[in-house]
Amino acid sequence: MGLGSGNSIRERWAALSRRSIAHPLVHNALALYGMQFASYLFPLITIPYLARVLGPAGLGLLAFAQAFSLWTALVLEYGFNLSATREIAQHRDDRAFHTRVVAGVMGAKGVLAIAVGVLTLAAAALVPHFREHPDYLLWAVLGMLLAGLNPIWYFQGTERMTRIAAVDVGARFLVTIGILTLVKSPAGGWMVLMLNAAGSGISTTVMLIWMYREVGWRRPNWTGALAALRLGGSMFLFRGAVSLYTTANTFILGLFVSPVLVGYFTGAEKIYRAALGCIWPINQVVYPRVNHLLQHNPARAGRFMRLNILVQSSLALGLGIVLFATAPMLVGLILGPNFAAAIPLVRVYALMPLFVAMSSMLGVLWMVPLKMDRQFNTIIIAAGLCNMMLAPLVAKYIGPFGMVVLAVSVEGVIVASMVWVLRRSKRDPFAFRGDEMVESMAPQPSDEVS
User: Fold this and answer.
1) Does residue 17 sit within a domain?
2) Distance between CA 31 and CA 25 in Å, rounded?
3) Containing domain of residue 336, as a range?
4) 198-212, 228-242, 310-324, 393-407: which has the minimum mean pLDDT?
């Protein structure tokens, strides 16, 4: 009796393990963690190398160009990585719908590319760093355009990231080899941008071919493009507002202080963002899953989200503690002795993993799937505008340390605001049971892309 029961338990456990390993959620998580491991491994090689070869001034100039690239990339990306992913995930088995979404999004990106061109011409004429170094601007924008056309949102929505991860890792490997081979002096900083553009071109080309093999080619038209722009509008506001207190800070700092000080700020930011990388793959897997569950089983979505909050907040808190305790060692190993001024910046940034994890979970992973776009955007836009009003003064009179304190403070206010809004609307994930949401989460005709 006892032996038979033991065998039965072992058999059930083995069957459960096999089902878990075969689950798409597990496959996607493993693939995304593979991408994240690569994003750790390759920067562990390139960041210390570039910090020593380029020095604080060269690294600051490179970061300034990358900040502009990331900022303008938001125009081309337009929030489709959230809005289009949500649509694909909620209509996962409708291939004809996928074809319409793809045509609409790619048509919209063609329209948005014109706006990017206008921004680039304005920057070339008005920004002193770009007038002196036009090659940095050229390659930064080209890389942004190529990355902006990447259809990773489609594969994320269909929860099939394994092949995508392989392409991403391969492209990163080639870029790393190129940096180590070609960049030999502070004057070669532009080559980093050139190589990143080449890597984005390879990755985007392969993914576009795979996507169109599945959905088929449908010529974009104005109707579909405008529908996609309307659908992604709220997410564009979100992404743009987030950039006002993240990416914009590096660019604003570079307008008021020397590239050396920008280099200290950038070095500290790279270390803190590397720590955040432990959380990123979980979010990428959870987002389409929550969207799908809210459509089909809201109560289960609530349970899934509560577990996710507990896991991610614990992980983020541990990351912050480690970041604070090891700041001197991390700066010395990753950036080198010329970046000792970045140590106090890293220690302030140690507060960020918990704040960022909470704002991502409560906002992107919960409020957005619940279609609380208006409340969510109100919080993010208000935070971004406050940061933009304060950042120039902080950059001019306090410098990098003040910019880090400002960034942490803004993120903390965002988390507190989200908690207040969710509790007031009775959609706090820890009180969410799902029964009252079945009708409100039903698909509406206006949600679809025509």
Assistant:
1) no
2) 10
3) 245-441
4) 228-242
